[in-house]
Specification:
By secondary structure, the chain is of the alpha+beta class. The protein is 19% helix and 25% strand. A 5-stranded antiparallel beta sheet has the order 1-2-9-4-7, with no helix packed on it. Strands 6-5-8-3-10 form a 5-stranded antiparallel beta sheet. The chain is globular, with a radius of gyration of 22 Å. The protein binds 2-acetamido-2-deoxy-beta-D-glucopyranose. Belongs to the germin family.
Amino acid sequence: MSACNTLAFIGILVLASYVAHATDPTQLQDFCVGINDPNGAVFVNGLFCKNPLEAKPEDFFFEGLNIPGSTINRVGANVTLVSAAQLPGLNTLGISIARIDFAPFGGLNPPHFHPRATEILTVIEGTLYVGFVTSNMPNDGNKFFERLLKPGDVFVFPQGLIHFQLNVGKTPAVAFAALSSQNPGVTTIANAVFGAKPPISVDVLSKAFQLDPVVVKHLQSLFWMSP
Ligand SMILES: *[C@@H]1O[C@H](CO)[C@@H](O)[C@H](O)[C@H]1NC(C)=O
């Protein structure tokens, strides 16, 4: 390649990378409905910023993540999330943290995904069986990745993929998760599908899940909670 061609080639690469980065801004909430009348609009995606001169150490501080959440509920788990809503200093920083407690013998953080974050999980106590499923792959369907975790083990759940954690031990389990958004969001699959309000049409769900409409109606009548 001549020097001139090489330069042109580098130029094209630089241009291509510039174009690739000229994307829309990352969402910081589920939606931000467009509005034509500027008088009724809020020009922000996330939270307003405090005057930096008025920021205090407390704005960057949260306490209590040493306290277990109660796991006396239907799934036997409890997620204590520290996002920008709980720790205002996280606004715009693209990170948050959660403590997850699991009851012995089957406490479950049920299948869910985070629309805006990858999650990296560290087990502190107990034994967790965890897994995630890929999006639809061209020839391979949905690939499942699973693993048994002990204290000190770290596992990553890529952004937007369905994942879960189950306590398979005889003792309570505790894990901490870091998430790559100030507001990761969570969609619990069963709740979103069978607990949507108003309910999704029985025709849609019975066909999609290959279930008798009676079973769909039963599932829709149940109480769906997320930990
Ligand atoms: C999680 O634990 C907290 C603190 O014990 C409790 O207030 C909350 O109701 C629990 N959430 C669930 C879903 O059980």
